[in-house]
Amino acid sequence: MKLPLNVDLQGKVAVVTGGGGVLGGYFCEALALSGAKVAVVNRTKEKAQVVADRIVEAGGDAIAIPGDVLDTASMENVRDELHKIFGTCDILINAAGGNHPNGISSQEYFRMEDLDNSEGRTTFFDLDPKGVSYVFDLNFMGTLIPSQIFGRDMVGKKDATIINISSMAAYSPLTKVPAYSAAKAAISNFTEWLAVHFSKVGIRVNAIAPGWFITEQNRKLMLNEDGSFTPRAQKVIYKSPCERFGEPEELIGPLLFLADAKASGFINGVVIPVDGGFNAYSGV
Ligand SMILES: NC(=O)c1ccc[n+]([C@@H]2O[C@H](COP(=O)([O-])OP(=O)(O)OC[C@H]3O[C@@H](n4cnc5c(N)ncnc54)[C@H](O)[C@@H]3O)[C@@H](O)[C@H]2O)c1
Which residues belong to the active site? Predict the structure, then answer.
């Protein structure tokens, strides 16, 4: 990866939850290339290990630590492991998150004929509260719990910072994904809350709201088997004045900018959209 900007994170310890995922993996590599020691935290250790190995092979400092962001005891284990190997956390990136089929309705709109649901559609009325709750928790509680565990490390530390990952779904909810949209809106709101709450102890809290990037969690929703765009992807392109999806590398500039107090030390409690203008464009 070629970094879009040079920041010096030597001596800093970064924790990236969901670091074994597509975007999280890019975040880990960029932080390591900028000099940070990176803990790649993922529920599935194998995915975290692949990212950590790639960083170490390239000459960086990284370890893979398995951990579930929904489980306080698991995050405490990650923290204890981190302390033994790298020391306390300076930079926390809350990138674990995503969707689940049980939190998704199959229809964009509820229509009269949906009252007689003989075709097995998942209407609003069929949404499984447990599925909705899982998606809400994964995104929101999965941001709050690591912030509790690693935030304690950061209190009073120089240049400590938390970066959350919101979404375009936070600004206007996306059809079919009520839990994900609500959770991302909650993350943007929580980012402001936590920024204020921690402002007396020196922890800056900001967020990035990525627009549309093709990754494992949305590939099937966006691409047909032959690689062409699904109707949903075509809607995204129509609503994007740049007429394309984003590349994960395009999140790295904002990430490093927010991570480095020398660049963004007076920026606190903001959510930066990285969306190619999607949010600004009404579609007309
Ligand atoms: N891809 C996009 O277009 C897009 C857009 C906006 C926001 N986002 C957000 O960016 C973040 C990263 O998304 P991605 O597209 O790289 O997804 P991804 O599915 O590739 O990565 C998510 C990672 O989180 C891990 N994970 C899931 N549950 C976990 C848990 N309980 N504990 C620890 N790790 C867990 C998964 O194993 C996976 O490696 C997510 O918060 C997502 O909602 C993505």
Answer: 180
